[in-house]
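Hi X.,

You mentioned you wanted examples for the new student's onboarding notes, showing what a folding record looks like when two proteins sit in one file. Here is a clean example. The first protein comes first, with its sequence line followed by its structure tokens.
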Amino acid sequence: MSAENAVPHRLRADGRQPDHEFDDPSEMLFRRIRSGSWPISNDNLHFLIDVPTTSVARERYCEQPADVLYTDKSRKATGVVGWRVGDVPAVVEEKASKVFLRVVHCPENDFYPHAEIRCVAEPDSVTPFKPDKESRLRIRRTMSLLAMLLIEPR
């Protein structure tokens, strides 16, 4: 990785422990997107939301939404979408099944802001759970409606 694309020191973990407090519902979660991922359609929902885990970056530990672009080693992502922590639904229901969503801070050595929006089987769990196909589609649709375009991909 060239020096100009290197992750800034301020974003590195450097021994910092995870911060499991998501007490500010207005805190943004940033996700990088590629060209062709916006505007959202049924054809590109899977690019926006990964199930059972969607990687995001916490606003609390970023200076700007574009900080999440440092994590794209391929350099193909040029846009950023975001969600407010308080907008992530606690549960998504599809027919008889319920899938709970949790935001979990799971810093990486090279990127402390890293977090995940996870599908879990129980409300107090943090273990990712892969729901059935219909529930995955419902989660993708629900989250896509809540997504805010912060930086348009080129």
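Then the second protein repeats the pattern, sequence line and then tokens:
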Amino acid sequence: MRPRTVLILAAIFGVLVVTVIVDRSRTRLEISTERVRVLSARPSEIDAIVVTRAENEVRLTREPIGWVLRRGESVWPADGRRVSAALRVLSSAQAEPVLASAATDDLDGSLRCIVSASGSDSVITIIDGVLSGERLALVDGTSVRVATELADMLEPRAVSGWIDASLLPGFGAEVFDLSLRRGSNAVALSRSGKRWGLSDPIVSPADPEKVGQVLGRLAALDVVHMSDAAVIGDILYSLQAKSAGTRWKADLDAQGRGVVSIETPQLLFTSVVELQEEGLAVFDADVSELVSRLTLDVPASDVAEIEVSPAGPAPSVRFRREGRGWSAEDYAVGILLDLLTARRAETSRIEAAPPDATGLRINRFGGLPVASLRVWRSDRGMTINDGSVSRLYLLDSDQLAAVTDLLSRSGG
């Protein structure tokens, strides 16, 4: 045989040997270039997702009240926006078929995802390891390669992150009953129509603006959802609230760890959470800040009589509305009525009136009682007490002199 022919045959044999070695080194993976969708379902058709790795399972289900996430003993609303975004990614994800793979023989410990849509289930099994920057997977028994980002999105830890992070999901302006407690300090509020009132530790009208701020702070609180096995200390902070169809309850320890539950007509939600330290301040509500800065919740036109009872033996005197005026100087009575019915106090304090304060009895037409009050002068104005709350009203020198003169009169 000629030397040239021998060289050519040797080269051809060498190429064949290298091809066989390379083919075997690829662990018998043959890749198709055609990409397919991982799921055929649209986002609106997906009803549930269950992801499992080892003992860790997270369930996401579409309920009449929205998406619900279940993990261990925890049942909690899911964040609808996060779920919708994830479903769009999942339903549009594509995969590259793998015709054969020995890597799918052992699936123990693999990530398993069951997607229920329109009455049928699709099973996605993500196999550990990276292949050319992607993850090997089985979709309903078919070997494919999927994006690493998709595989990471379906991990139980990632799906758990689709939970609603609010301390009180659904909490808002519809609430009509609220109680907050920090240790032995408790505040209870209730709403009738648009009017809020305190029922504990005192009974008094509440400032709707201040109550609205508290409701807003509570609605904005976010938490970290924890394992059912989290250690919880003695309860220090508590909350209970009601709306027409929902009840919220939270019991937290000094570190902000505890259990929150939400009772609705459809489901009972419960979860172990941790609230950051700065969020705990809302539980320590200042009653003096919540009381109404108005002494009387009636218009001045409803007041027909003011009875002044000075401290001591001096007899009382009554000022009556007569026609278009009063049986006293209209200027002084007008200032007093403005303080009682229209002007917001500068400050408020929870306290009793001093024993030497002047008494005020306010009546409607026909002698119907409105309120019994105590009033006294300070350096800056007048303080009016309704039995539990003192409200300070600032006055200029002329106004202060006029009201002081009015209150110092007696019937003797």
